[in-house]
Amino acid sequence: MEIGPVDVLEVAFPGNEFNGEILPALEQLIASGTVRVLDLLFAYKTADGEVGSVELAGITERFGPLFASVDGDVPGGLLDAEDVEALGEDLEPNSSIALIAWENTWAAPFLSALENSGAVLLDQARIPRETVLSALASLES
Fold it and tell me: Model's pTM, two decimal places?
Protein backbone atom coordinates (compact mmCIF):
# COMPACT_ATOMS: atom_id res chain seq x y z
CA MET A 1 0.00 0.00 0.00
CA GLU A 2 1.38 3.37 -1.01
CA ILE A 3 1.11 5.92 1.80
CA GLY A 4 2.89 9.18 2.47
CA PRO A 5 4.19 10.45 5.78
CA VAL A 6 1.50 11.36 8.31
CA ASP A 7 1.70 14.58 10.29
CA VAL A 8 -0.39 15.74 13.21
CA LEU A 9 -0.88 19.48 13.30
CA GLU A 10 -1.82 21.07 16.62
CA VAL A 11 -3.41 24.51 16.28
CA ALA A 12 -4.47 26.66 19.25
CA PHE A 13 -7.46 29.00 19.30
CA PRO A 14 -7.17 31.32 22.31
CA GLY A 15 -10.52 32.49 23.60
CA ASN A 16 -12.22 29.56 21.85
CA GLU A 17 -12.46 31.78 18.76
CA PHE A 18 -12.63 29.54 15.69
CA ASN A 19 -13.97 31.36 12.64
CA GLY A 20 -13.35 28.81 9.89
CA GLU A 21 -10.86 30.91 7.96
CA ILE A 22 -8.42 27.98 7.70
CA LEU A 23 -10.95 25.81 5.88
CA PRO A 24 -10.50 27.18 2.33
CA ALA A 25 -6.74 26.53 2.56
CA LEU A 26 -7.36 23.02 3.90
CA GLU A 27 -9.94 22.37 1.16
CA GLN A 28 -7.37 23.46 -1.45
CA LEU A 29 -4.77 21.04 -0.06
CA ILE A 30 -7.31 18.21 -0.19
CA ALA A 31 -8.62 19.09 -3.67
CA SER A 32 -5.11 19.29 -5.12
CA GLY A 33 -4.23 15.87 -3.70
CA THR A 34 -1.44 17.32 -1.57
CA VAL A 35 -2.87 15.91 1.66
CA ARG A 36 -5.56 13.48 2.76
CA VAL A 37 -7.15 14.22 6.11
CA LEU A 38 -7.13 11.05 8.19
CA ASP A 39 -8.66 12.48 11.36
CA LEU A 40 -9.63 15.77 12.93
CA LEU A 41 -10.44 16.54 16.55
CA PHE A 42 -11.26 19.67 18.51
CA ALA A 43 -10.48 19.78 22.21
CA TYR A 44 -11.61 22.71 24.33
CA LYS A 45 -11.58 23.97 27.88
CA THR A 46 -14.37 26.27 29.06
CA ALA A 47 -13.78 29.29 31.29
CA ASP A 48 -14.88 27.04 34.19
CA GLY A 49 -12.22 24.44 33.36
CA GLU A 50 -14.50 21.81 31.81
CA VAL A 51 -12.66 19.85 29.09
CA GLY A 52 -14.48 18.45 26.10
CA SER A 53 -13.97 17.48 22.50
CA VAL A 54 -15.70 17.18 19.17
CA GLU A 55 -14.55 14.44 16.79
CA LEU A 56 -14.74 14.73 13.02
CA ALA A 57 -18.09 12.99 12.81
CA GLY A 58 -19.66 15.67 15.02
CA ILE A 59 -17.85 18.72 13.67
CA THR A 60 -20.19 19.39 10.74
CA GLU A 61 -23.17 19.00 13.04
CA ARG A 62 -21.69 21.37 15.61
CA PHE A 63 -20.10 23.99 13.34
CA GLY A 64 -22.48 23.79 10.39
CA PRO A 65 -21.50 23.73 6.72
CA LEU A 66 -17.97 25.01 7.39
CA PHE A 67 -16.71 21.44 7.67
CA ALA A 68 -18.97 19.74 5.15
CA SER A 69 -16.18 19.51 2.56
CA VAL A 70 -13.73 17.97 5.04
CA ASP A 71 -16.16 15.49 6.58
CA GLY A 72 -16.94 12.47 4.45
CA ASP A 73 -14.44 9.83 3.38
CA VAL A 74 -12.13 10.45 6.33
CA PRO A 75 -11.38 7.17 8.11
CA GLY A 76 -10.91 8.69 11.60
CA GLY A 77 -9.82 6.74 14.65
CA LEU A 78 -6.23 8.01 14.87
CA LEU A 79 -7.06 10.68 17.45
CA ASP A 80 -8.96 9.62 20.56
CA ALA A 81 -9.90 10.26 24.18
CA GLU A 82 -6.29 9.87 25.31
CA ASP A 83 -5.33 12.77 23.05
CA VAL A 84 -8.12 14.90 24.53
CA GLU A 85 -7.00 14.03 28.06
CA ALA A 86 -3.38 14.96 27.31
CA LEU A 87 -4.39 18.20 25.61
CA GLY A 88 -6.85 19.12 28.34
CA GLU A 89 -4.11 19.14 30.95
CA ASP A 90 -2.19 21.84 29.07
CA LEU A 91 -5.09 23.90 27.75
CA GLU A 92 -5.67 27.28 29.28
CA PRO A 93 -9.26 27.99 30.36
CA ASN A 94 -11.42 29.42 27.56
CA SER A 95 -9.24 28.05 24.76
CA SER A 96 -9.32 25.25 22.23
CA ILE A 97 -7.02 23.17 20.06
CA ALA A 98 -7.62 21.51 16.72
CA LEU A 99 -5.66 18.37 15.90
CA ILE A 100 -5.47 17.45 12.25
CA ALA A 101 -3.87 14.16 11.21
CA TRP A 102 -3.10 14.19 7.51
CA GLU A 103 -1.20 12.06 5.07
CA ASN A 104 1.23 13.91 2.83
CA THR A 105 -0.04 12.15 -0.28
CA TRP A 106 2.39 14.04 -2.53
CA ALA A 107 5.27 12.08 -0.92
CA ALA A 108 3.78 8.58 -1.26
CA PRO A 109 5.18 7.82 -4.76
CA PHE A 110 8.65 9.03 -3.71
CA LEU A 111 8.64 6.86 -0.58
CA SER A 112 7.53 3.85 -2.64
CA ALA A 113 10.37 4.52 -5.10
CA LEU A 114 12.83 4.64 -2.18
CA GLU A 115 11.57 1.29 -0.88
CA ASN A 116 11.57 -0.28 -4.36
CA SER A 117 15.17 0.87 -4.92
CA GLY A 118 16.29 -0.85 -1.71
CA ALA A 119 16.85 2.40 0.16
CA VAL A 120 15.99 2.56 3.84
CA LEU A 121 14.51 5.74 5.29
CA LEU A 122 16.47 6.38 8.49
CA ASP A 123 14.72 9.44 9.83
CA GLN A 124 12.36 12.23 8.94
CA ALA A 125 12.09 15.56 10.71
CA ARG A 126 10.10 18.72 10.37
CA ILE A 127 11.77 22.09 10.95
CA PRO A 128 9.31 24.54 12.56
CA ARG A 129 8.22 27.39 10.29
CA GLU A 130 9.45 30.05 12.72
CA THR A 131 12.94 28.52 12.71
CA VAL A 132 13.10 28.56 8.91
CA LEU A 133 11.81 32.14 8.69
CA SER A 134 14.36 33.26 11.27
CA ALA A 135 17.22 31.52 9.46
CA LEU A 136 16.19 32.99 6.10
CA ALA A 137 15.89 36.47 7.61
CA SER A 138 19.41 36.21 9.07
CA LEU A 139 20.76 35.14 5.64
CA GLU A 140 19.20 38.23 4.06
CA SER A 141 20.88 40.52 6.61
Answer: 0.76
